[in-house]
Amino acid sequence: MKIIKLLLVLFVLAIGSAATVMYSGIVNVAADEPHSNFVYWLLEETRERSISHAAKNIKVPDLSDPELLLTGGTDYEFMCASCHLKPGQSESDMSVGLYPAPPNLAISSKTHVGHEHDDDDEAARRNFWIIKHGIKASGMPAWGKTHDDQRIWAMVAFINQLYTLTPEQYQILTAID
Amino acid sequence: MKTLTKLALVLIPTMALSLSATAHDPSLHVKKAEKADCSKMDHSKMDMKNPVAIAMMKKCMKQSKADDHKMKEMDHSKMKKIESKAAKKDDQEHNH
Predict the structure, then answer these.
(1) Which has more confidence, A76 or B80?
(2) Which residue in A110, A143, A130, A159 sits closest to A55, CA to CA?
């Protein structure tokens, strides 16, 4: 009985502490003020685990059709490039201003510092899920609300090739017909 | 007149304020619908088994066909008239 009472007191204390922090306004939500290392790790781990779990059963179609690069390229230029950059570009207003910073998709994921990437299929599944569903409170929209799966897979196919493109190749593939 | 003055009073400060809100490089915010620049494509260096090369070829061929189609749709009969008018004008100038 004593243990139950103790647990109940601890529970009320925890709720009270959380409510105090929440309503006091001391949490800084400014995007130009980074999280502490611990909070960043906590949020990043939660995000990565969530995406891996949600995307694990997605079947990756054949992404080698060149036609996919044309559809995906045009969509990438108009929907993604302002944040995720393009060949020959190292930053933009959005890539600098957003927090957490959007990944630079114009460079190979193998050169990303601080975190590892999975195999090609795993990366394709992950990219498809993120493009379709977006990520809460990160600036990443859920494009699945306005784009069908076929168009999203075309974007995934384009992103797979993006880091290999020169600025000239990118211009041709993303231009309007 | 009063309505015009009111509109001017609202619109001018609004436009002035929106112009002052531009970021450091306005060109970054302009999305232009550009045509593919196929002149820089080096066919000799292209591996035609590579999906990127195939996609680029498709894009440029499609654009070339569209340009040809536009040329065919132009009314050449009117262009000849303009040319002949210009030629006549030149002739007249030479005769003087």
Answers:
(1) A76
(2) A130
A156 CB neighbours in chain B (<8 A) are none
Q: How far apart are CA A65 and CA B82, in angstroms?
A: 48
DSSP assignment letter at A57: T
Close Cβ partners of A35 (under 8 Å, ≥ 6 residues apart): A43
What CA–CA distance (Å, rounded) separates A164 from B38?
18
Mapped onto helix, strand or coil, the DSSP state of residue A135 is strand
For residues B70-96, give the mean pLDDT: 59
What residue type is assigned to position A99 of the chain?
A: Y
Count the residues in chain B. Answer: 96
Distance of CA B96 to the CA centre of its chain: 40
Domains along chain A?
Answer: 58-174 (1.10.760.10)
At B72-83, the pLDDT tens digits run 666 656 665 555
Neighbouring residues of B43: CB distance < 8 A, sequence distance ≥ 6: none
Contact B91, B85 (CB under 8 A): no
List, for residues A2-44, the tens digit of each pLDDT value.
999 999 999 999 999 999 999 999 999 999 999 999 999 999 9
Within 10 angstroms of residue B80's Cβ, the number of other Cβ atoms is: 10
- A86, A120, A172: best to mutate for the B interface, most B CBs within 10 A: A172
Among chain A, residues having any CB pair with chain B shorter than 8 Å are: 64-67, 69-70, 73, 78, 82, 92-93, 161, 164-165, 168-169, 171-173, 175-177
Helix (H, G, I), strand (E, B) or coil at A140: strand
Tell me, what amino acid is at A74? Answer: T
